[in-house]
From TrEMBL:
Alphabetized PANTHER family for the sequence: ADP-RIBOSE PYROPHOSPHATASE, DIHYDRONEOPTERIN TRIPHOSPHATE DIPHOSPHATASE
SUPFAM superfamilies: Nudix
Top-level taxon of the source organism: Bacteria
Family affiliation: Belongs to the Nudix hydrolase family.
Protein name: NUDIX domain-containing protein
All copies of domain Nudix hydrolase, residue ranges: 1-134
Transmembrane segments: none
CDD domains referenced in this protein's UniProt entry, alphabetically: NUDIX_Hydrolase (cd02883)
Organism: Rossellomorea vietnamensis
Amino acid sequence: MFIVNVEGAIHRDGKWLLILRSEKEEHAGGQLSLVGGKCDIEGVSSDILERTLQREIFEEVGCEVTGIRYVNSASFVTDSGVHVIDIVFLCQHHSGEPYAKSVDEVDKVVWLTTPQILELPEMPSYLMKNISMADKMLKEKDTARL
């Protein structure tokens, strides 16, 4: 069995919203990451990934997003041996100024540009990959408008 986790690559004004995960978190505590969380068991349901993403973003950082688009998916195993499927979505910030709303999960919110994220030596490689892919999607969308 897998846990299903969703994350949002939230973009606003040329920057990405990242959180510094609380040290209390079982997985990746004290690291920068995208905002997101686990899907709850709902039985028969539709749009569960998108609704979970919106709920988790609001619960953790107090903002709303729109324009949710699939970026990529991966699997990993936590330090405690839990198998996780992780799905990343590109999102546009819609409303609310993000802050560390869920203090048990989030120590701090930061806005960084793509180059800033890619240049930080302590940045996890999977986060750099997800931001690179989301950034490429944004650029392709902008090019398509021309």
